[in-house]
Amino acid sequence: AESLKEAAEATGRFMGTAIADGRLGDSTYTGIASSEFSSVTAENVMKWDAIQPQRGQFNLEPANRLMDFAAANAQQVWGHTLVWHSQLPGWVSNGGFGADELDGIIQDHISTVVGEYAGEIAYWDVVNEVFEDDGSLRQSVFLNTLGDGYIADAFRYAEAADPSAKLCINDYSTEHTNAKSDALYDLVSGMLDQGVPVDCVGFQMHLILDQYSASDIQSNLQRFADLGVEVVITELDIRMDMPSDDGKLAAQATQYADVVGVCVAVNGCAGVTIWGFGDADSWVPGTFPGQGAALPWDENYQPKPAYDGILQGFGAA
Ligand SMILES: OC[C@H]1CNC[C@@H](O)[C@@H]1O[C@@H]1O[C@H](CO)[C@@H](O[C@@H]2O[C@H](CO)[C@@H](O[C@@H]3O[C@H](CO)[C@@H](O)[C@H](O)[C@H]3O)[C@H](O)[C@H]2O)[C@H](O)[C@H]1O
């Protein structure tokens, strides 16, 4: 295979990346983004604080830039994200709205944003990170004002706005079998029983070098796929303690191969998206001081051993 997207395509899957809006004017960046990936996710510009910064004021230009880029490169677009406790503008998080008004605000946000791109965005992260690591529902203005019904309602609003889009619930630290993935499993199977239009489950997979079990990740994802929903790896990166060295980079390549290989082994795993592709654009160093080098291209957009690891995971190297 000449590229990651071709390797993925050969297995009937997509290969995606998060796109940093600020890089779309950089030809080295866009060269890789257009040639290696068949799917793109907005890293930030489709989040509530960016797309509806003030009530009723929708800022679509940055999102449209991504839509235009994807259209020009025949790429699928993954919408990220509609209802999330983080990157929420103050007018929502501190609005002090009653239940009916907040419910209306969520419905208006979803119908406007999803409606704007109806038929153009293939997948949406409808709700993001609704659980705490212990499996309890995360405290948020949504849960505290509306109760847990806000989750199913968000899916119904998205379905009404674009029946053609696949609607996903997305979270992190759910790749292994644990209290959080068990709670997610119970929520998804419960919603399916109630006829809530959940089409897919996104596993972010912000992993740490050498801290994973491929066999456990595989059986965990398979149990979700056995519910009849698609499973997707949505934000993959594998961070290491800096400085990196040849041994760590080789281990990282093996870990990328194993994780991508899990997606290939799981019937119902639709694709893999990495959370950016160049270490210079990664969120990791800013959030985890002393850690980094999490992505398949280095600071100078040169491919790392991890690039071949991903090809290997798709059975192309
Ligand atoms: O945290 C990693 C993942 C976890 N899963 C959900 C997924 O959405 C999340 O992505 C990360 O989500 C983070 C916020 O939670 C993003 O970080 C934000 O990214 C934004 C856009 O670049 C930053 O906002 C800019 O900040 C600048 C200086 O502070 C301002 O000048 C800009 O106006 C402002 O847009 C925020 O500070 C920064 O916190 C990361 O880029 C993004 O990679």
TrEMBL record:
EC number: 3.2.1.8
One of the record's GO molecular function terms: endo-1,4-beta-xylanase activity
Residues in GH10 domain copies: 1-313
Keywords: Carbohydrate metabolism, Glycosidase, Hydrolase, Polysaccharide degradation, Signal, Xylan degradation
Family the entry assigns: Belongs to the glycosyl hydrolase 10 (cellulase F) family.
InterPro entries from the UniProt entry: GH, GH10, GH10_AS, GH10_dom
Annotated protein name in UniProt: Beta-xylanase
Transmembrane segment boundaries: none
Catalytic activity: Endohydrolysis of (1->4)-beta-D-xylosidic linkages in xylans
Alphabetical list of Gene3D superfamilies matching this protein: Glycosidases
Presence of the UniProt keyword Signal in the record: yes
